[in-house]
Amino acid sequence: MSISMDREEIKTVIPHRDPMLLVDEVVDMEPEKKITTKFFVDPEREIFEGHFPGDPVLPGVYTVEIMAQASDILILSAERYAGKVPLFIGINNVKFKSPIRPGDTLEIHSEMTYEKKEKAVVTCSAEVYDNGVLACTGDVTLAMR
């Protein structure tokens, strides 16, 4: 079964809101397996005023959060985790391969790779593509509380 969602539908799944909601669309999701999302890096984001003046780049922590939020949607879409708050408890194997600039459109792929159901802990392997170019990879671990 393939699922897509717009921004309003995403808000029914995860607790994030502006300015920290970093997913615009779920392009495709296979529940409890994998997800593809999109995010437009708005040049008007306040962060670009200081990171870096004259040469703006999306901070790496935002990229990691973007991977986590795509994973959050995938995990919280499972009935057993619906309504929970996803807590970021780990990030491993992160590699930044290409800078992300204001105005870029990102496509995020995340796949569940590990789950410890009795502890409600899930790890997802994620990739961020910037206009088709691999920009970042990493494994995010989240606890559902």
UniProtKB/TrEMBL annotation:
Stated name of the protein: Beta-hydroxyacyl-ACP dehydratase
Protein family (similarity comment): Belongs to the thioester dehydratase family. FabZ subfamily.
A single MF term (Gene Ontology): lyase activity
Source organism of the structure: Hornefia porci
Keywords linked to the UniProt accession: Lyase
InterPro entries in the record: FabA_FabZ (IPR013114), HotDog_dom_sf (IPR029069)
Listed Gene3D superfamilies: Hotdog Thioesterase
